[in-house]
Amino acid sequence: MKNIRVGFIPLIDAAIPIAARECGFAEREGLDVALVKETSWANIRDKLVHDLFDASHMLAPLAVATSLGIGNAKVPLAVPFGLNANGNCITLASGLYRALEEVLGHRPENPRQSAQALKRVIDKRKAAGGQPVTFGIVFPFSVHAIIVRHWLRLGGIDPHNDVLFQVVPPPFMVASLAEGVIEGCCVGEPWNSRAVESGVGSIAVFGAEISRSAPDKVLALRDEIAAKDPDTIHRLLRSYKSAARWCQERGNHGNLAHMLAQPQYLGVAPKTVLNALSGTLAVNRTETRAMDDFLVFEGDEINRPDPRKARWLYAEIASGLRQPLDEAQAQAASAVFRTDMFDAATGNNAPHEAPDPIGLKFGPAFDAWDLPAYVSALER
Amino acid sequence: MTDQASILIIDENRARAAIIQEGLREAGHLNVRWLNETGNLLRRIVEIDPEVIIIDLESPNRDVLEQMFQVSRLVKRPVAMFVDQSDSEAMHDAMVAGVSAYVVDGLRKERVKHIFDMCILRFNVFSRLQEELHEAKTALADRKVIERAKGILMAAKSLSEQEAYVLMRKTAMDQKRRLAEIAQAIVTAEGMLK
Questions:
Q1: Within 10 Å of residue A197's Cβ, how many Cβ atoms?
Q2: Does A288 fall in a domain?
């Protein structure tokens, strides 16, 4: 048995690393995996960088930012596996959601409508000299931040000048909404449902309404580990591929919910996990909404680390920081996503490559080979 | 220039924060404050405007500090994580001890290193104290249950105190279990048979 240490944050999208261990997929590959629970993405990054973890559950944009030295010391990472797409929601504080209903005369019916209503609320508030709306995000480099920016732009809101962003750790999100520190947030489950249950907020948008397959969490490891011991990594990836299929299967969701709910993992009620797995959420006090691809674990489009996705993440990070694009950085980013490792491990000879790796449902089409055109269309 | 860097400790554990604060004071750093805020942390940091921030790794608030790396409208001066590139072993030790540090731009490295090393030391002192406390509590609980089991055996089998103790110790050795476990089994069984 080969021992390896994998870090994770207690979130539903840590399902694949957890199931790989709990269902014996890792053991079958001769791996004894120790899963180490962490409280912050900064810890995850630092423990990976300083060799306390062999691999880790990580925010996809953080893996790219760390590799490029954006926001911190530069440490090249390798991403050989995507762990999920979607699973996040944009939730608004009850007061702000009511203001949206008032300007529309009814509940917003789609992301464009809610964003346009928010624009009118923001304009009114500006005219009256009120405070800007602050959004809580889980990390500066997160798909959560990207999703909020896309949604805001749907309504003609400038994410850089019309609103503020503030990092709020997910466990503090509901309290921050209640106290008015933030008026909206983008976060994974169960935190949106908690806000709805406690009457603090309403879910306005599912992340899956903004994009079909934007990378959310990935498996990340130090580049040198990938080079030094490829065999162990291949075995880990094979166990993750089996786990991904198992997690995706609806018939297993009851078991998966109980597995993740255990105190050593998420420590929440199994029912809460099950709601997110089934994609059926109470979005406010009276309505429930369901989406089949609310949270997706499996498929080449999700698991295979397509370098075009890394280029998209880089473009979004640069745009978020209002930095000019640099093709050398874009190439360095795409080198982080290691299809070669994924293909070698899984024997994937004819991967399914979607024409559009991100599947944005609104806004400009994404062309991985023309990032300047994408970003200028985005920011127009 | 005074050598009084303003230091902010962010730690939900009051006892540990006190131990660190004391260590820093002894080393001559008098400008030390402590926060255990979970809510609007960023605003408090902006108000206090520290030059060095020490934070425990158990705090989810580390991610809040990450935001200050970027030029943000929320913060006055850029903040960076304290990473001594020349000394990755020290960073490793800090991770293991469970502490991390952030500094404002332009602060001299040697000054921060001194503060940081002191904090690592104190974090380790605190862990050791906790372990000792845990051991002391366990020992106390063990002694109590052994006393009770001894009493039960003495009454049930008309044994002297010494004989009851020897019987339990022999059983523990035969079964390769701790004396306290055997004693607990006796206490549990007696409760069920009552």
A1: 14
A2: no
* Pick from A141, A193, A136, A213: nearest CA to A167: A136
* A306, part of any domain: yes
Let me know if residue B146 belongs to a domain.
yes
Q: Enter the ipTM.
A: 0.88
Which residues in chain B are closer than 8 Å to A168, comparing Cβ atoms? Answer: 64
Phi-psi sector, B145: left (phi>0), alpha (psi -120 to 50), beta = alpha
Task: Please give the tally of structural domains in chain A.
Answer: 2
- Together in a domain, B125 and B141: no
Does the CB of B184 have a partner CB in chain A at under 8 Å? no
Q: State the alpha helices, DSSP H only, in B29-78.
A: 41-48, 62-66
Q: Where are the alpha helices (DSSP H) in A294-370?
A: 300-303, 307-321, 327-334, 339-346
Residue B22 maps to which CATH number? 3.40.190
CB contacts, 8 Å: B38 with chain A: 172, 175
Do B59 and A72 count as a contact with CB atoms less than 8 A apart? Answer: no
The helix, strand and coil proportions of chain B, stated in percent and rounded to the nearest 5, come to 60, 10, 30
Chain A residue nearest residue B42, CA to CA? A166
At B11, give phi and psi (nearest 5°).
-155, 125
Cβ A163 vs Cβ A152: under 8 Å? yes
**Which helix or strand (DSSP H or E) is residue A33 part of?**
strand A31-37
Distance from CA of B182 to the nearest CA of A (A): 29
A218–chain B nearest CA distance, Å: 18
B33-54 pLDDT, tens digit per residue, is 998 876 678 888 888 888 888 8
How close does chain A come to B70, measured CA to CA in Å?
7
Q: What is the pLDDT of residues A101-145, one digit of tens each?
A: 999 999 999 999 999 999 999 999 999 999 999 999 999 999 999
Decide if B61 is inside a domain: yes
Closest partner residue to A50 (CB to CB) among B69, B74, B95 is B95
Nearest to A140 among B57, B70, B96 (CB): B70
Report the gap between the CA of B165 and the closest CA in chain A (Å): 38
Report which DSSP code applies to A337.
B
**Letter for the amino acid at A165?**
F
Give the pLDDT confidence of A231-257 residue by residue, as tens digits: 999 999 999 999 999 999 999 999 999
Mark yes or no for CB contact B92/A52 under 8 Å.
yes
CATH number for the domain that contains residue A146 = 3.40.190.10
Residue A22 has what DSSP assignment? H
Hey, is A191 helix, strand or coil? helix
